[in-house]
Specification:
alpha+beta; six-stranded antiparallel sheet; 4 helices
Length: 140
């Protein structure tokens, strides 16, 4: 027994890697996402930018799905044109949907995430955003 243990001493990390590697082969961050085409609609560009955010599962190892995705009509806040994208995301928690929300600024046709409290989105009229659910389905 002591001889057997002395043979494996120092080699257990390699053995563990050999045993676990096949099971973890599919795990890891998602592949890089291509940028949307320049001819993509505004809703497609908004959905693409939202899906790149951590709140929308961009770095999740667990597959997620979206339901009831919404986008606000453009509104002006402090001289900036903003959009709010929200959805119900299922998959990372058991039984309870997460409610990710992101604020996006449109500055001369260039979309960028605004890192601020999402309460600026309260009270604005929203429309369905099926592009977010469609894009999320193609990236699995």
């Amino acid at each position: 027994m002591a001889v057997w243990l002395s043979l494996w001493r120092g080699r257990w990390p390699a053995l563990l890697a050999v045993v676990l590697a096949p099971g973890l082969a599919g795990c890891g961050p998602r592949a890089g996402l291509p940028a949307p085409s320049p001819t993509a609609s505004l809703n497609e560009r908004l959905a693409d930018l939202a899906l790149r955010q951590t709140a929308f599962g961009a770095v999740s190892l667990i597959p997620v799905r979206f339901e009831h995705s919404r986008v606000s009509k453009p509104f002006v806040d402090e001289g900036r044109t903003l959009y709010c994208v929200s959805s119900r995301m299922k998959g990372r928690t058991f039984g309870k949907a997460e409610r990710p929300k992101v604020v996006i600024q449109d500055k001369a046709g260039i979309l960028a995430i605004v890192d601020e409290d999402t309460e600026v989105c309260e009270g604005h009229r929203t429309d369905p955003l099926p592009e977010l659910e469609a894009l999320a389905g193609t990236r699995r």
